[in-house]
Amino acid sequence: MHEVDCSDKSLSQAEWVDACSDGGSGTGGDGGPSTGLGFGKPYVWADGLEVTVVEAAVFSDWDEYEEPDPKNTEFRIRLKLDNKSSESVDLGDLSVMVDGATNGGQSSSSTFSKGSAPLEGRLAPGVSAVKTDDNALEKRYGKDIVVTVQRTSEDGFDVFPEFTGTIK
Question: What's the predicted TM-score (pTM) here?
Answer without folding.
Answer: 0.79
